Amino acid sequence: MSDAPTTAAPLTDFSRLCVHTITTKPWTIEKAAQHFAQAGVKGITVWRDTLAGKNIRQTGQMLLDEGLSIVSLCRGGFFPHLKETGRQAAIDDNRRAIDEAAELGAPHVVLVCGAAVGQPLAESRKQIRDGIAALLPQAEAAGVKLAIEPLHPMYADNRSAVNTLGQANDMAEELNSPFVGVAVDVYHLWWDPTLEQEIYRCGKNGHLLAFHICDWRTPTVDLLNDRGLMGEGCIDLRQIRGWVEATGFSGFNEVEIFSNRLWAGDQHEFLENIKKAYLEHS
Amino acid sequence: MSDAPTTAAPLTDFSRLCVHTITTKPWTIEKAAQHFAQAGVKGITVWRDTLAGKNIRQTGQMLLDEGLSIVSLCRGGFFPHLKETGRQAAIDDNRRAIDEAAELGAPHVVLVCGAAVGQPLAESRKQIRDGIAALLPQAEAAGVKLAIEPLHPMYADNRSAVNTLGQANDMAEELNSPFVGVAVDVYHLWWDPTLEQEIYRCGKNGHLLAFHICDWRTPTVDLLNDRGLMGEGCIDLRQIRGWVEATGFSGFNEVEIFSNRLWAGDQHEFLENIKKAYLEHS
């Protein structure tokens, strides 16, 4: 919130480029790791579906052997449920996610917090806070942080009742633990008129754990799987990255793109386009 | 913001039921007026497309002759453009909308404020404020108010850079004119954790000009034209109507539904379903 210009300078190398496994969804984690490393990508965020049936500790070692930094594990969350049994099952699943992150070597688990159709948003929000609070002793014991990711308001029905960075900041402040922070994703937050001040607040609190990038396409034809590659849409990525870096954040720029269109194409070509877009538009 | 319960009591009659012409899009304005009146609907909000090529004064008289209250004219707005010529064309079009509202006998024009891909949101927001300010003398002369409608953040790319009620309230306060107010639409605002306090603020300012209802479906398959009938989705309509009525608002509950699915069906049946849903779920 200084008077200094906060638009970031263009990125000139891939030292802070991380790609989410979901971004190149057709690839197994082994293929993703190999191709990311060959392409010069330095970080990987692992989605839990890619770990099914695998020895997670060995998988983590494989990623390190490829020279990749393990940036985070996606995802825990989905705390709200109408019934207590559902809420308990969610907490149990989040306990497994924390264990998996520890075995993999990921410093934090990203939380898509959830929402339950059929109960007030305020109740879902309370269940999210209570769910995270219940996990804190285990998170601390495992040395794994929990990153609350506010999701776009178009997901408030059933994916997340945390829909602004202000809310996520409020919740992280209230939980007041060194094992709770926030993940900032431009897709979810770019529209928010309070974004600059909330990024500043998040950073000042020491809560800014992750920064996710992609773009918003016009028109967007699918609410979930029509994200754009950086530069394909209207998000002012350098402005937002400037605000993030002004807080002192020096972590990875994580490319997280869900796109039926881009998943349908050649993934090697897509990865090259990600690198190009990273330098030109991010 | 009192401690009294603010959830509204069920509606028991149609004295405050208004339907937008876009809701029954397949009908001409003459058919809509006739069928609304026959069904006991008391108010109509007119979309400008239904007036094309018509004598607007005579059309307004026709609506009154059917016993309908003319609740508002939809819509003006779309102020932001990259070029000055585009911004001027938008202002000219809004001047026509004000004239049309005066001829029709509508007390206000609803503004879908617009947004321009290719310029910062902050610039679009400034152009919106400047555009409305430029219209104020004419609005005052015509006795027609302008209602800023905040739109859901999923429309921030090209439909509106005003995406929260807080923003609309800020803008209305800044413009500080008896001819500027706000339209509250549950579809756009239901997710907002600050909604109760912003409705209270809007009402206290005397800015709450209109209240639009429908529902949010899960899943939503189209960003624009997949709204639900009241009760088909997750919006807590009585809670929000309670907040609105707690401000002293006693205007119409306007049913505004864009739905390819519902437009494809029999519109008489749809209108009966609207009446049923109005009593049971609104």
Low-confidence stretches of chain A: none
Radius of gyration of chain A: 18 Å
CATH superfamily of chain A: Divalent-metal-dependent TIM barrel enzymes
Cα(first) to Cα(last) distance of chain A is 21 Å
Brief rundown of the structure:
The first copy, chain A, has helices at residues 29-39, 56-65, 84-104, 121-142, 165-175, 186-189, 195-204, 237-246, 260-263, 267-281, and strands at 17-20, 43-47, 69-77, 108-112, 145-148, 180-185, 208-213, 253-255.
Keywords:
homodimer, 282 residues, alpha/beta, TIM Barrel, eight-stranded parallel barrel, 10 helices, 8 strands, 42% helix
Describe this structure as you would to a colleague.
The structure is a homodimer of 282-residue chains. Chain A has 282 residues and is of the alpha/beta class. Chain A has a single domain, classed as Alpha-Beta Barrel (TIM Barrel). Helices cover 42% and strands 15% of the residues of chain A. Chain A contains ten helices and eight strands. Chain A has helices at 29-39, 56-65, 84-104, 121-142, 165-175, 186-189, 195-204, 237-246, 260-263, 267-281; strands spanning 17-20, 43-47, 69-77, 108-112, 145-148, 180-185, 208-213, 253-255. An eight-stranded parallel beta barrel of chain A has the order 1-2-3-4-5-6-7-8, surrounded by eight helices. In chain A, strand 1, helix 1 (29-39) and strand 2 form a beta-alpha-beta unit. The first copy, chain A, is globular. The model of chain A has no long low-confidence stretch (mean pLDDT 97). The A-B interface holds A 117-118, 120-121, 125, 152-154, 156-158, 163-164, 166-167, 190-193, 216, 218-221, 223, 233-234, 236, 239 and B 117-118, 120-121, 125, 152-154, 156-158, 163-164, 166-167, 190-193, 216, 218-221, 223, 233-234, 236, 239.
